[in-house]
Amino acid sequence: MIPDGDLAGQPYMLTDEMWTFLVKHYRLHEGAREHSWQTAWHYTKSMLVRPQKWGKSPFVAAMICAEAVGDVIFAGWDANGEPVARPWPTAIIQVTASTEDQTDNVYKALRPMIDTGPLTDLIPDTGETRINLPGAGWIEPVTSKALSRLGARVTFVPQDEPGTWPGGSQLEKMADTQYRGLAGTGGRPVLITNGWDLAENSVAQQLAESNEPDVLVDHTKAPEHLSYTNKVDRQKIHRIVYGDSALKLDRGGNRVTGWVNLDRIEAEASKLVKKDPNQAARFFGNIPSMGSGSWLQPGQYSDRVVVRERPKSGPVCLGFDGSDVDDWSAIRLSTFDFHKFTPVDHLGRRTIWNPALTGGKIPRLEVMAAFEYVFQTYDVVRAYLDPPLWASEVNFLQGKYGDRVVFEWPTYRIKPMHAALERLKTDIINPTSGLSFDADPDADIHYRNAVMRARAGQTYILGKPADNQKIDIVMSDALAHEAVNDAIAANDLGRRKTSQISTTFYKIG
What is the dihedral of CA 45, 48, 49, 53, to 10 degrees? Predict the structure, then answer.
């Protein structure tokens, strides 16, 4: 039964979109005849991405009712070769969200669905914190705080708004624990969420970007050419993403289908767009986007990526942000027309090191060999190196190439770092600066990850949304960009032999 609102107590009817999702979620594997019931499903995880007020919570509450007492397990084939099903002998269901208030979205829709409908005789015990099921099973709301309950052999796990569960957080660990519990029983999760903040690398984002064939991602999207900040385009987007849930009236003003008043959605969205357009796009437009704390907005970095051959020589400036075990290390170069690129070492390997791929530590000898090759290959005018953890190596390079070429540039100094980041950001946004980037896939991710962390005096530094979301290439670019601008200001090129310098590099901007 419909749990609340003007239609409370009326039969809960699924829309075509909902039926489509269910058909996909319960689809059998193409080779199901040769599989056991636990491996017969085509999808091991399913995610539904829809805007606010579409009806995700009541829909997943209806799925919980089915998983609690309905025939939802593949049980072989009948005499006509058609699949048959049976209920779980002991259904254990965890309604999961980031907070108790968030679990209420589903749990408080679920209880009246049971209590006011035909299931009340089958499920008579619907408590505020637990619903007891036939066969000694139960339904319970859980959050990451309930660690003692996360090891249960669950059969169905609806996860509410995993688009707000940041990568590397306790919530991600909770999700992984539940997935392991489901794997042991043959159960599956269903994730319901709005569009997510691309800077957070959330559980939902990771699932959507996994491209795994056994993961169902049902995400209604409007065409990319429509702009959410444009009122006419925004209304088109709403009609698309709200789909069957949009309220439709007959000539007499009576409801025909749907329940979402798009005029009301537009009124709310238009207000939020003025304050936080990306948040409005996520909530009402079903569009994953960068949060307001992101250092760059969507398109600002990607618009500067150009496909061009990596420079093989010539004057450059260098930036290096080094680590030891936790973060990445990267050598990035900038030409004097502001093109940022990743050079290669003597073996043709990119000068970017991920400790997860190098035995858990940055290979210092390999990095130093790369420095030597870069200095031999290019005319390095200035090199700005972040010294913490690399002080001895920086001193060695200063002794070899001179302290008027190799400089210590500590990134922990807040005011200079803020100024360097602002200069790089301004030149990225300014269409006349001439700044460009090579098409490095890791750089794209690091720029997307970068978020601003406020400091005193209206300054900021860059931070990571989560420990596993790195930004080290951005930091190396900031140092390289600072070096090239300082070299231009000091007329370092003018003191060098003109035969070593391509005249094209004099065309700045």
Answer: -150
